[in-house]
TrEMBL record:
Residues 15-292 form the Inosine/uridine-preferring nucleoside hydrolase domain. GO terms for molecular function: purine nucleosidase activity. It comes from the Bacteria. GO terms for cellular component: cytosol. InterPro entries: Inosine/uridine_hydrolase_dom, IUNH, Ribo_hydro-like. The keyword Acyltransferase does not apply. Keywords: Glycosidase, Hydrolase. This is Nucleoside hydrolase. The keyword Nucleotide-binding does not apply.
Amino acid sequence: MGQPLTEATAGPTRIVLDTDLAMGAPGSDIDDGFALALALADPDLRVEVVTTVGGNSDVQTSTRLTHALLEVLGRTDVPVVQGLPADDDAAHEIVRRVLAEPGELTLVTIGPLSNIARALELEPRVATAVREVVVMGGVYLEQTNVAAMPGEYNFWCDPEAAQAVLQSGLPLRLVGLDVTRRVRLTRADAERMADSGAFGRLAAEHTLGWIAFQERVKPHEEIEQGSCALHDPLAVAVVTRPELCTWRAAHVDVETEGRFTRGVAVADLLMWQDPPAPNCRIATEVDAETFQQLFVERLAGLP
């Protein structure tokens, strides 16, 4: 397994953001929208292209909402390429860009890994040509504790793709649910955003709707009362701020056939004699306070 590059480099880190963005769709998660906004607001990142994938919404809706959000953010110059399950365009775009500039591009994946797995199928050399892959997906030191969705959502949607990515030799950093649900956006935070510009008004409206939806659907899950998790923005933030999380080498596989365990990530932490070879690094802790400060600071500069 190649070692992810985390040290400072000259100029911004150039990324391909692969997303199932749903901010703007009634009753849909909003963290992908915040992740895109954060990526564009971070002076140390440059978004080369956004690729879309089905997940939080169907891929056509994600593509439409991504274009709409880029317009609100004043960044219609950022190209958007639609992917699976509609077509292979996103996978071909990933292959084309990564192979054209080996070692230069980082993939940040915040939806199901369908496009990445398809890109590897089209051209296995992507695994050695990409600079790094940062994945929001899986849960490693905990469980979802939900029988209807035993695996974290992105892995649960397409466990075969997740397993293909983990077996590929890509330089992987995995940011799982056990750390991302510790970084929160409260109802009061959302209300303050409403006074901060076009994006703030849009984000506030949909965040308040999402928090209310989560409270209805998860009435007995205490952490979901009055706030929502910023899963995907954390994955974006650690691209250039890896110190926000504590990292541990691991060997991770994803269950694709289990009757009760679809999408469950099984993490071997290499503690026993003769452990398997590590295939990734997983986040095990997060500095939630520092992330929150960074998140608010970055988004304050948006239009």
